[in-house]
UniProtKB/TrEMBL annotation:
Organism encoding this protein: Methylophaga thalassica
Domain of life: Bacteria
UniProt KW Heme keyword: yes
Keyword annotations: Heme, Hydrogen peroxide, Iron, Metal-binding, Oxidoreductase, Peroxidase
Family as reported in the entry's similarity comment: Belongs to the catalase family.
Protein's name in the database: catalase
Enzyme class: oxidoreductase
Enzyme Commission number(s) of this protein: 1.11.1.6
Length: 482
């Protein structure tokens, strides 16, 4: 095979890559070394800001196959016909640590799916847990600060995490999941994915249904105990996924949905839009709708996985948001982060570009291109304003108008303190379905961090466990004494 010729980034052939031009063999370099300067200057610019959360992650491509039509609930094109296959890109991540942290931290795992549908990209940006620590987006920066490194020592500091949780009991349900055996998945293949939030479907008749996604691992749940994680390879989850896909052992998940009618939501005792709560399975059974498979690794980690930009606001006709306050906060946060982290034209990069025509009147900005993957033009030389008289100027389509979102009749615009709501029943339910061994792991994992906290934090946490289940508190208290 003829070797490819090395070139500059402008495509010109390069004669020597090892020796810069110097004044004699021992002499200084000259301005003629523009090629060396190009290499050094590009190197200086190799990093972009890492994600402020979920910085450490692994991505791969795959396919979603619909096995049950959801036509009754949604007009979303990729959910109409059984057997329909849709390309996806998935990125798994840990949350709190930086890019060079550990794959096996006790931390929720991100489970973000980009569905490249015929009606644009739909992103399901979820976690491996069905709930979250908070129900108001204003608390997200505070909560994340408490999970990250101590600002003075730059060291992990469980005292900060428990200090926040002791002051914020609505986190208890998610804390219980995090501290349980499921808090450290043995690999990305061995965990479930959840939308966690309630979203909405709407159908041809303009009827809206609330729903949640569940992606159940077909590999089975496998977890690491704290002592196993302490000695695990920090890159183990990345390696496990890449190697499984490379050897053709494609990981897969069974996709399920829970569905709630608008009427049921109005009557529900527990707020169906509260992210700290699940919808009980017995009342809202899981409906199996598809299979998700990962079958192709990325060619270039940085270009694809690092620059992937997932946004909970990436909806397609037939799928939309809900009144969940956390979700509303997220609808604004992600695109803002992408513009900062990747750049204003991030949707033109191949991993982010829709695989359908993209027609709009946005123009210019850093790195504006004409023709991203698939040949679908984002920025053309045609009309750059709307309305216009041009035949080829794109126009809105009323057929995809979303039905009005119901809101509480006579509601007031105000700040509502929801902290009196029940934080304990579902955390207790989870504790009660655990085996004896799981309960003991939970208590030991909590004692590991809580044991480093002062007595006041310990007492407030024990009071929360007591309200969830007296045995929960008793086990943690005993583990703290051990
Ligand atoms: P169910 O008994 O019907 O469901 C229990 C669910 O809990 C199962 O999906 C099971 O997952 C999952 N589970 C088991 N152990 C753990 C753990 N350590 N951490 C997280 N999830 C676990 O009960 P309910 O629907 O009434 O829910 C009871 C509790 O189960 C909830 O309070 C919640 O904490 C948890 N849960 C509920 C979910 C829901 O959508 N209702 C989803 C996931 C968790 P699997 O089948 O994969 O083993
Ligand atoms: C990533 C904000 C809650 C799942 C991010 C990023 C931001 C962010 C800024 C980085 C995005 C980027 O740079 O590309 C927020 C805010 C939240 C919130 C403000 C609450 C108000 C949640 C919740 C979930 C979640 C509840 C799960 C249900 C994720 C995932 C990623 C992520 C999976 C990584 C996506 C990827 O792989 O690129 N979040 N987040 N976040 N978030 Fe959130």
């Amino acid at each position: 095979m003829t070797k490819k010729v090395l070139t500059t980034s402008a495509g010109a052939p390069v004669s020597d890559d090892n020796n810069s031009i110097s004044v004699g063999p021992r002499g200084p370099l000259t301005y003629d070394n523009h090629y060396t300067f190009e290499k050094l200057a590009h190197f200086n610019r190799e990093r972009i800001p890492e994600r402020v959360v979920h910085a450490r992650g692994t991505g791969a491509y795959g396919t979603f196959t619909l096995t049950k039509s959801l036509k009754e609930f949604t007009i979303a094109d990729f959910l109409q016909n059984e057997g329909k296959r849709t390309d996806v890109f998935i990125r798994f991540s840990t949350v709190g640590g930086g890019q060079d942290s550990h794959d096996f931290a006790r931390d929720p795992r991100g489970f973000a799916i980009k569905f490249y549908t015929k009606q644009g990209n739909y992103d399901m940006v979820g976690n491996n847990t069905p709930v979250f620590f908070l129900r108001d987006p204003s608390k997200f920066p505070d909560f994340i600060h408490s999970q990250k490194k101590n600002p003075r020592t730059n060291l992990p500091d469980p005292r900060m995490a428990y200090e926040f949780w002791a002051n914020y009991p609505q986190a208890l349900h998610q804390v219980t999941i995090l501290m349980s055996d499921r808090g450290i998945p043995a690999s990305y293949r061995n965990m479930n994915g959840y939308s966690s939030h309630t979203y909405s479907f709407w159908n041809e008749k303009g009827e809206r249904f609330w729903f949640k996604w569940h992606f159940k691992t077909n590999q089975g749940i496998k977890t690491l105990r704290a002592e196993e994680a302490a000695v695990a390879d920090p890159h183990g989850a990345q390696q496990d996924l890449v190697e499984a896909i490379d050897r053709g052992d494609f990981p897969s998940w069974t996709a399920k949905v829970q569905i709630m009618t608008e009427q049921k939501a109005r009557d529900a005792e527990v707020n169906p839009f509260d992210l700290t709560k699940v919808w009980p399975h017995d009342e809202f059974p899981l409906i199996e709708v598809g299979q998700l498979e990962l079958n192709r690794n990325v060619d270039n980690y940085f270009a694809e996985t690092e620059q992937a930009a997932f946004a909970p606001s990436n909806f397609v006709p037939g799928i939309s948001s809900s009144p969940d306050k956390m979700l509303q906060g997220r609808l604004l946060a992600y695109q803002d982060a992408h513009r900062y982290r990747v750049g204003v034209n991030y949707n033109q990069l191949p991993v982010n570009a829709a695989k359908c025509p993209v027609n709009h009147y946005q123009r210019d900005g850093a790195m504006a291109g004409l023709c991203p993957a698939g040949g679908h033009h984002h920025q053309t030389s045609g009309a750059n304003f709307y309305p216009n008289d041009r035949d080829d100027g794109p126009a809105p389509d009323q057929a995809v108008a979303e039905p009005p979102m119901p809101v509480e009749a006579g509601a007031w615009l105000d700040r509502f303190d929801t902290d009196e709501e029940d934080h304990y029943t579902q955390a207790g339910n989870l504790f009660r379905i655990m085996s004896d061994d799981q309960k003991q792991q939970l208590a030991n994992n909590i004692a590991g961090g809580l044991g480093q906290c002062d007595a006041s934090v310990q007492q407030r946490m024990l009071a929360q466990f007591e309200k969830a289940d007296p045995d929960y508190a008793a086990r943690v208290a005993a583990a703290l004494q051990a």
